[in-house]
Amino acid sequence: MADTPVHPAPSELRDALARAIAQVNTVLLGKKHEVRLAFVCLLAGGHLLIDDLPGVGKTTLAHALAATLGLGFQRVQFTADLLPSDIIGVSVYAREQPGGDPGGFRFHPGPVFTQLLLADEINRATPKTQSALLEAMAEEQVTVDGETHRLPLPFFVVATQNPVDFAGTYPLPDSQLDRFLLRMSLGYPDHEAERAMLASADRRVLLDALMPCLGPEQILALRRACAEVLASPALIEYVQALLAASREHADIRIGLSPRAGLALLAATRAHALLAGRAHCVPEDVQAVFGAVAAHRLGPAATARSGRDALARALIETTPVR
């Protein structure tokens, strides 16, 4: 019998991570699965899109994550008149100063130069402004006037958006959606969670009381630990079967890309780490598949099901190898 693999994350890191998850759950009541998915996204090194109706806790979750993770934090409220330079920064000319400063153009960093960026109501900005985040999310850098500027690490974008049929919204293009490792919805709380929320203190008071449970170095260490979680050849074959099924499904016009497969494996490893295992199992794949895959699927014109239903169908019809 093979030896049980040593867990890649030290116990003190696992304890700090458990405290962080528990703390966020004290603010966002009745959403343990969604909170776990948010931490899966963080540990997998991706970015999170929260897509839901106004008032269900999207921004509250982002603020709770910021307060709990101990990261530098900036919030950008996306509006129709927001410009790309309002996000990434701008070069401003400075005149020559007495004392030898020759002057010239100086880059003034925008709010993207942080560790956790809350892009609130991202789909209220124009596509041009939305695309200003593409390089930052994909390469952890921005380029202005031909000069590349690295972003602080870890860099984590939490974006919220309202349903696309709401007035004043612009649908995110597929290239932008693909930059988000996970997309999820929160939905209404159940009866007990809503009663507890109504009877408790104001969410802003609770957010102000939160204390950092993790820090940048700990998050980077946890990300390295995630990369060491074992994905067996059989599990990789199962992931590949899901990718193939998405490309062959009659109701799917655009199937999952190889990059989507890598994202699915990264999220699977993070889910296994959160479950306290040093290896992945098919249940890890199934737990994260909808959040990773649904927003990357392109339904055919004749499809009667939306993206979420198509993702569920792929899980239900693809056998575990």
Structure characterization notes:
By secondary structure, the chain is an alpha/beta fold. The chain has 2 domains: 11-227, P-loop containing nucleotide triphosphate hydrolases (Rossmann fold, 3-Layer(aba) Sandwich), CATH 3.40.50.300; 229-321, Orthogonal Bundle (Helicase, Ruva Protein, domain 3). It has helices at residues 11-27, 32-43, 58-69, 85-88, 127-130, 134-139, 174-177, 191-199, 203-208, 216-227, 233-248, 258-274, 282-293, 307-317; strands spanning 48-51, 73-77, 89-94, 104-109, 116-120, 141-144, 147-150, 156-161, 182-184, 252-254, 298-299. The strands form 4 sheets. It has a 5-stranded parallel β-sheet. It has a two-stranded antiparallel sheet with strand order 3-4. A two-stranded antiparallel sheet has the order 6-7. A hairpin with a 2-residue loop joins strand 6 (141-144) and strand 7. Helix 2 (32-43) packs across helix 12 and helix 12 (258-274) packs across helix 13. It is globular.
